[in-house]
Design goal:
The protein is an alpha/beta fold. It folds into two domains: 239 residues, Rossmann fold (3-Layer(aba) Sandwich); 74 residues, no CATH class. Helix content is 29%, strand content 24%. The protein has ten helices and twelve strands. It has an eight-stranded mixed sheet with strand order 6-7-8-3-9-10-12-11, sandwiched between helices. Strands 2-1-4-5 form a four-stranded antiparallel sheet, with helices on one face. The longest helix has 16 residues. The chain starts with a strand and ends in a 13-residue tail after the last strand.
């Protein structure tokens, strides 16, 4: 049996329209091991949401799968017939929670009615809204959610409750892998805490064995994740354990990204808040070489012309000419 639940190889997905071609995800290879929680971090527009969407095998309008491979439990997602993907993979092996919980629900249906429709669509199981409610009530209670939430319309719920309800619905079939996109965005601190506790509970109890959480909120990822992958301008620049990424970042972008946050516990009190100079590149015309070089204070001539290969050492992966031989230095 494979040790990975998800594996991508040189995955590419571009937006195509009258605006041109946006190289949103441009050759990403990533593995999620069984039993782990992986965080995907980076600035807004770096490709996190697009990458997460591509993992589902269904592209949103204007997004086109270009090439590469996505395997979930050994199933080649982009070469699986649509009907088999809909009924045999989604929800059962792979479940996806988009960024906006309100957009994931039908505003004209009570949650129990939405669940009944979903069961018919995903599994062919015909049931009434009341039967769907009974079917999910125990799962809601197990997640410390009031089952009466299933009797409500989406607009009757707070943002935090909608998000937790969507996650509960998405995990009822105990899929092998849960994908969540910016789960804590737009939530107040108390709602974020409850959501994080819910995700940890899903993992701790074994309901969901593996997760990928895409977020710009590194503080939340620090609480949730075993490993973190850093994305910039459609490419992965660094991967490592959460402790390694937070305490000993290798790539200049990762270092600057962490320095641009409000001080974390590991930072000294006198460390100053910094910003990343410049702005992310226009991915209709990606810069040559390392995509971070226009903003990198440590760039050299080779950075401007040639993309560094990914280097793997001591369980870490990084793409930077400063460490082209795998030398992590003394830090």
């Amino acid at each position: 049996m494979s040790e990975s639940v998800l594996k991508t190889q040189d995955l590419k997905g571009y937006y195509r329209g009258t605006f041109g071609v946006v190289h949103a995800v441009d050759g990403v290879s990533l593995t999620i091991k069984k039993g782990e929680i992986l965080g995907l971090a980076g600035e807004s527009g770096c490709g996190k949401s697009t990458f997460t969407q591509l993992l589902t095998g269904t592209a949103v309008p204007l997004l086109h799968y270009e090439s590469g491979k996505v395997e979930v439990e050994g199933i080649d997602i982009w070469n699986t017939p649509a009907e088999e993907l809909r009924k045999g993979v989604k929800c059962k092996l792979l479940s996806y929670v988009p960024q906006s919980a309100l957009n994931a629900l039908n505003p004209t249906l009570r949650l129990r009615e939405f669940v009944a429709d979903m069961l018919r669509e995903r599994t062919g199981q015909k049931c009434s809204p009341n039967e769907a409610r009974e079917f999910l009530a125990e799962h809601f209670r197990a997640l410390n959610l009031d089952e009466h939430v299933l009797d409500r319309y989406p607009h009757e719920l707070s943002g935090g409750m909608r998000q937790r309800a969507v996650i509960a619905i998405s995990t009822y079939a105990k899929p092998s892998l849960l994908l969540t996109d910016e789960p804590t965005s737009s939530l107040d601190v108390a709602s974020q805490k409850r959501l994080i506790e819910m995700l940890l509970s899903l993992h701790r109890t074994g309901m969901i064995k593996s997760m990928m959480i895409s977020s710009h909120d590194i503080c939340a990822l620090r609480q949730l994740c075993d490993r973190i992958a850093i994305m910039y301008a459609g490419k992965l620049v660094e991967e490592g354990t959460t402790d390694d990424i937070i305490n000993n970042p290798v790539h200049p972008y990762t270092t600057l990204l962490l320095d641009s946050l409000l001080p974390l516990e590991h930072l000294s009190k006198d460390k100053k808040f910094k910003i990343i100079e410049g702005r992310p590149p226009d991915l209709r015309h990606p810069p040559p070489g390392c995509r971070f070089h226009p903003r990198c204070p440590q760039r050299t001539d080779i950075c401007t012309s040639k993309m560094p290969a990914a280097v793997e050492k001591n369980g870490r992966s990084f793409s930077c000419w400063l460490y082209s031989e795998g030398d992590l230095g003394d830090g």
